[in-house]
Amino acid sequence: MTVTSETEVFVGVPDTSEGWTDRAREVSNILAADALARDRAGEPPFREVQLLKDSGLVTLLGPIEFGGGGQRWETAYKVVREIARADGSIGQLLGYHYLWAWAARLVGTDPQISAVEELYTSNRFFFGGAVNPRDTDLTVVDRGDTLVFNGVKSFSTGGRVTDLTVLEGIIDGTATHVFAIVPTAQDGIVFRGDWDNLGQRLTDSGSVEVNDVEVDWASAAGFVDKEFQPLVYNTLNFPAIEIVFANFYLGIARGALDTAAEYTRTRTRPWPYGGDNREIATDEWYLREGYGDLQSKLWAAEAFVDQVSREADAVLHDARENLTEQARGDLAVRIAAAKLRAADVSLEISNKIFELTGARATSNDVGLDIYWRNIRTHTLHDPLAYKRREVGSRFLTGEIPEPTWYT
Questions:
Q1: What is the CATH number of the domain that holds 167?
Q2: For residues 194 and 161, what is the distance between their CA atoms, to the nearest angstrom?
Q3: Name one Pfam family in it (predicted).
Q4: 3-class DSSP assignment, residue 178
Q5: How far is 331 from 211, CA to CA, in rounded Å?
Q6: If DSSP codes are grouped into helix, strand and coil, which group holds residue 34?
Q7: pLDDT tens track for 213-227
C-alpha cells in the first residue's frame, strides 16, 4: 500500500517507546514505496500528514489522558529519524511539528500548556510555524483585550497542511516579542504556495501573509497581565530544533546508504579492467572498502547524536525552573557539534554513493539524487561554520553561546 492509496488502518496506540518506533517503521515503509514519485510531483503533502495523524505519531509527545503517547523526546528523535529514512520531507515536517507542539512548554504558562496540549492531542492536530527570524518581524498591535498580527514571512514550514500555526512578532512601539498559536484555516492566513526548491520539496515551506489575525491576550504565550514571565528554559527553542535537524539528517543518510547498497547488490556490475576481476560487484574490494568507510562513519555519527539526544531529552523533561544559563549553553554546544557531525556525514554519504553504485545509478528512475538534494537543501538552514565556531569557542576559552534565534 502506498501513501497515495487508501489510508492504512492502524490498530490502537502504542504504549512503549519500542512500540512507537515500530509504528514509525510501519509508516516509513508506506512512505518509501512512492517517495520518489511524490517528490517529483511536488504536491502539498496532505495525504502524508493524514498518515501521520492516522498512525498516532503526531500525538507521541501528547499527554496520555488526552489520547497521546506520553512519550519522551528521546523516542520522538528516533521516530523522526525513522520517518526521514524513507522521506526526508515528511521527517522534517514531523520533527517541526513536535517542536511547535512543545512550544507552549518552552514559553507558555501552566494553564496555556494544559490548554494547548489538550487541544492538539485530542484532535490530532498538526503544527506549523511562521517564525523565520531572518525576516522582518510581524507587527503586533495591542488592542486592549486582543493582539492583532500583520506581516509577511518568507518561510512557513508545513504551511497549507497544518491545523495550527505558531505566529511570532513584536508588539508595536516596544521591543517585546510575543508568540501565539492560532488556527491555520482562517482568512487572515494566506499561503502563497511558492516553495519550489532543490530538495525537501514536500515540506510546503513557502511564504505566508498574515493579515489582521486577532488573538486574545490570554493566548499570548508566557504573558500574565501583559507581562512576560522569563525563564532560561524559554531560550531552548533553537537548540531543541537543531537536535531534531541532526536526527532527520541521519535518517536521510541511512536511507541513502541502504538504498545504494541494495542497488549495488542487485544492479551494479563489477569492473572488468582492474586486473583483479570479480564475478559480482559485492566482491569488488573498492566497493567493500567504500561501503565500510561510509557505514563506520554513519554508525559513529548515530552514536554521538543518540548521546546528545539523551542529554537534550533530560533537559527538556526536567522542571523548567531548574535550567541554568551555563547548562543551557553547554547543551547548545553539544547540539551544535551533533548537528555538524550529522550534516557532514550525511552530505558525504549522499554524494559518495554515486561512486559506489556506478554510472547507471544516475538514471532518473533510480532516484538516488533525492537524498543529496534533501540533505544539501536543509543543511543550508544556517551556516555550519558558525556551529564550528561555537564548539571551538567552548573548547578553547570556555565561552558558551549567547541565546539568539540561531544559537
A1: 2.40.110.10
A2: 14
A3: Acyl-CoA_dh_N
A4: strand
A5: 37
A6: coil
A7: 999 999 999 999 999
Predicted pLDDT of residue 93: 98
**How remote is the C-alpha of 34 from its chain's centroid?**
21
Distance CA 7, CA 403 (A): 43
**How many domains are there within the chain?**
3
Confidence of residue 135 (pLDDT cuts 50, 70, 90): confident
The grid coordinates of residue 5 equal: 492509496
Q: What burial letters (b/e) apply to 354-389, b meaning 16+ CB within 10 Å? A: bebbbeebeeeebebbbbbbbbbbbbeebebeebee
Amino acid at residue number 341: R
Residue tagged 512548554 (cell numbers):
105
HSE-up of 332 (CA within 13 Å, CB side)? 31
In this structure, are 33 and 166 located in the same domain? no
What CATH number has the domain bearing residue 279? 1.20.140.10
Q: Where in 225-351 does DSSP place strands (E)?
A: 227-228
C-alpha cell at 396: 578553547
Dump pLDDT digits (tens) for 170-184. 999 999 999 999 999
278 belongs to a structural domain: yes
Identify the residue whose cell numbers are 497515495. Answer: 4
Integer Cα distance of 203 and 215 in angstroms? 26
Q: How many whole angstroms separate alpha carbon 218 and alpha carbon 145?
A: 8
Q: 196: phi > 0 → left, psi -120 to 50 → alpha, else beta; which?
A: beta
Instruction: Show which of 90, 123, 156 is a domain's final residue.
Output: 123
pLDDT band at 8 (very low <50, low <70, confident <90, very high): low
**C-alpha–C-alpha distance, residues 189 and 95, integer Å:** 22
Q: Do 271 and 378 sit in the same domain of this protein?
A: yes
Give the helix/strand (H/E) hosting 241. Answer: helix 237-266
Sign of CA dihedral 79, 82, 83, 88: positive
Residues 325 and 352 in one domain: yes
Cα–Cα distance measured from residue 16 to residue 219, given in angstroms and rounded to the nearest whole number: 33
Positive or negative torsion for Cα 286, 291, 292, 293:
positive
